[in-house]
Protein: Nickel import system permease protein NikB
Amino acid sequence: MGTYILKRMITIIPIFLIAALLTFGMIRLSPVDPAEAYLAAANIQPTEELLAEIRKEFGLDQPLLVQYVNSVIQISQLNFGVSYVTNKSVWGEISSRIPATIQLTAGSLIIAILVSIPLGFLAGIKRNSGIDHFSRFLSFIGASIPSFWLGYLFIYFFSVQLDLFPVQGTGTWKHLILPSLTLAFPLIALYTRLLRASVIENLQEPYVLFARTRGVHEKVIMGKHVLRIAISPMITGLGMNLGNLMTGAVIVEAVFSWPGFGRYFIEAVFNRDVPVIQGYVLLAAGIFLISNLLVDMIQMYIDPRISRKGSQYQ
Structure:
């Protein structure tokens, strides 16, 4: 198991290097000149002399390979450069906003897990019942409604009409409820559907019949065996969605004026703040890789057969 995890950790390095190369290439191939973007953010009229000076200062006049190697070295030191707008360290700006995004992500995950696990499990064991129809209806609604529209609906009903929660900003636990619900709603739809389908599939497996013929109590079969195995696809989806939540909560943060680094990225796009954009993309890649590694470790704990299967193909 330890060998398998070590191999998975080693594979992260070349994948991240490829992500850095793609990010570097896309920025260099884009029509936005970093030197011009820097001068535009400083409200300075660009001239050929100034552009040449800025390119030399940022190392943009060097060969692309040299620029890429220098970029990788700086990134390994968590040095993403300096923001064109604020003239502050990009990593410092992002790290100051990460706690707000983590708080929002954790809140949405807690809500999604607390709702989807019992709902999906009951829908699976009570197929075609009222709760099953309700779970499918909820999944359909959650997968259909855009996040920004759902956020505005929550604001209208719970803030404007009922005056239960603040409209925007941070400060208390009440500020966290609406944006967390907005982020959690699509996850509830996805996880409920995954768990329901997995429970139905596992109920038809021979081990369930054998356990029943041995006289094992139904609650033990459902809780200790069926749920433990059926939850595996949900955990896999959690690994993929964790990166989406951390880096893709851009719309929700904008709707609720949440001071996370997703909203910071949107501002950087409008300001053509190239170092911030590059730092955000690479940080997103790192979060995706680490979250999937963590999910693999959890999966191996739940089902040790995964590590044995993985070692057979390596």
